[in-house]
Amino acid sequence: MEVALYESLTAHQNRWMPETIWVPALVLALYQNRHAPYSRFVQLATVRPDGRPANRTVVFRGFLDETSQLTFVTDARSAKVAELGQSRWAEVCWYFPVTHEQFRIGGPTTLVGAGGHDPPLLDARRACWRELPEAVRLSFTWPAPGERRAPRVPFPTQHPDPTEPLPHFCLLILDPNEVDQLELNGNPQNRWEYTRDEHGRWRGAEINP
Ligand SMILES: Cc1cc2nc3c(=O)[nH]c(=O)nc-3n(C[C@H](O)[C@H](O)[C@H](O)COP(=O)(O)O)c2cc1C
Fold first, then answer.
1. Would you say the CB of residue 61 lies under 6 angstroms from ligand 1?
2. CA–CA separation, 129 vs 163, rounded Å?
3. Residues of the chain with pLDDT under 70
4. For ligand 1, atom 11: residue with the closest CA
5. CA dihedral (122, 196, 51, 102) positive or negative
6. Which of 136, 151, 13 is nearest to 75 (CA)?
7. Cα of 186 from ligand 1 centre, angstroms
8. Contacts for 4-12 with beta carbons within 8 Å, 24 or more apart?
9. CB of 38 closer than 6 A to ligand 1?
10. DSSP designation for 39
11. CB environment 155-169: b (16+ within 10 A), e (fewer)
């Protein structure tokens, strides 16, 4: 994990311009906070069909290949998947406790479920399934999340095939379009805003904290 993060950091440093410096900054934060397991927990906000916000914690599962897209996994039957089906935009809020930094990253999402049609994304879904801890894979055999729990009915305990994702397993990809980075260290604190236009060009600016 550490070597992978370090390689990712140097690869990103060589590839990104000042306008997209948030990418190596995020990779560096992941590296510097690597001993705090909860530094991979982020809050993912979506929009409910009636316009109200919905928010929950998910685990960051890494960047999609060599891109700056963020990957997460979830159950296709969960509320967040239905919400993203209606409104693709999501935002994560990510606090790094060791370096005292916050990243707010927003953008459209892509859900890759069993019925996906894009072979590279289906490969990424399969690869992600294989890398999951066994206990997480097992949770995809459980009854639908959010439904009323049947009393006294034990949940399945048999581990699923680690090579082939179960049908409810969903890869969630967030393609960042807006990033707000806040560094609490410093007096005054430091804050930058990055946005990507419709041509894919990033602009970055330092803003007041
Ligand atoms: C530390 C932590 C990590 C979590 N990681 C995930 C995750 O990676 N994917 C996920 O779908 N839910 C994860 N959950 C559960 C979600 O926070 C949430 O309860 C669940 O996904 C149902 O959310 P929804 O009804 O809004 O879809 C995690 C919860 C905690 C507390």
1. no
2. 7
3. 1-19
4. 74
5. positive
6. 136
7. 33
8. 5/30, 5/31, 5/34, 6/31, 8/63, 11/66
9. no
10. G
11. eeeeebeeeebbebb
**pLDDT tens for residues 67-99?**
999 999 999 999 999 999 999 999 999 999 999
Q: Which residues, in sequence order, are CB contacts of 126 under 8 Å at separation 6+?
A: 163, 164, 165
Burial state string for 172-181 with b = 16 or more CB within 10 A and e = fewer than 16: bbbbbbebbb
C-beta of 47 in contact with ligand 1 (< 6 A): no
Angle value at C-alpha 85, between 82 and 88, nearest 5 degrees: 125
Contact 87, 99 (CB under 8 A): no
Please give the distance, rounded to the nearest whole angstrom, from the Cα atom of residue 58 to the centre of ligand 1: 5
Q: Kindly give the distance from the C-alpha atom of residue 195 to the centroid of ligand 1, in angstroms, as a whole number.
A: 27
Quote the pLDDT of residue 133.
97
- Contact between 15 and 198 under an 8 Å Cβ cutoff? The reply is no
Examine residue 188 and say whether the peptide bond preceding it is cis (omega within 30 degrees of 0): yes
| Residue of minimum CA distance from atom 3 in ligand 1 | 58
Is 54 near ligand 1, meaning CB less than 6 Å away?
A: yes
Residue nearest to atom 19 of ligand 1 (CA): 56
The answer, yes or no, to whether any atom of ligand 1 lies below 6 A from the CB of 136, is: no
Taking the CA of residue 81 as reference, the ligand 1 atom at the shortest distance is 27
Phi, psi of 109 (to 5 degrees): -115, 160
**How many A from CA of 78 to the centre of ligand 1?**
9
